[in-house]
Amino acid sequence: MEPATTTSQTRDHGIYLYWVPLGAGGTGFVRFNGRVYESLASRRERRSPLDLYHTALEVLLPEGRYIVETMWPCPDADGATTRGVGVQGPVFSRWLSFTRVFRYEVRCWRDGDLPDANQAVGGGRLVSDDPDLARRVLSLTMSVPAHTWGRRLDGSTEMWNSNSVIAWLLAKTGHDMTEVQPPEGGRAPGWDVGVALASPVGRRG
I need a surface site. Which of 54, 75, 80, 130 has the fewest CB within 10 A? Predict the structure, then answer.
């Protein structure tokens, strides 16, 4: 895996993974709650606390640039089709998802924005330069399982969340997930459940 620090200005294809510190660029609410969560988790698991990350992909192809990320919906007036929403799912409980606050959306946004990309550790890290693999990732964004965000799946110790979506996409398309690791001293909650849920496929770099 090439440890690119930013999306290359010379490439016209590739899949880049961003490890964005949880709560970067926000008011501090998400960051604070993340630290509380990690403090409790580390005590329960008898280990030192780690830095937490939110993940997103930037996919470059000759036909366009795409941001793949899981976020809360923008105001409806912005238009879901404009930001490339392919899947929506409930947050915490399905019966609460009638309101935007309790929904999440998986975006495959052409020429989209990636908030706080400049704060990602190591910048955009190249995980594949295979254009066919990049197109496969884009096509699968419409098939991401819409599990309930913040709820554990049967047989898992982790909750489904935005990191689960990115891990599912990469594992589903055959990336060697042992080569895709968070920055040293950090972790991405929900990552492992996404990997586990993806159907077994042959490994590709």
Answer: 75
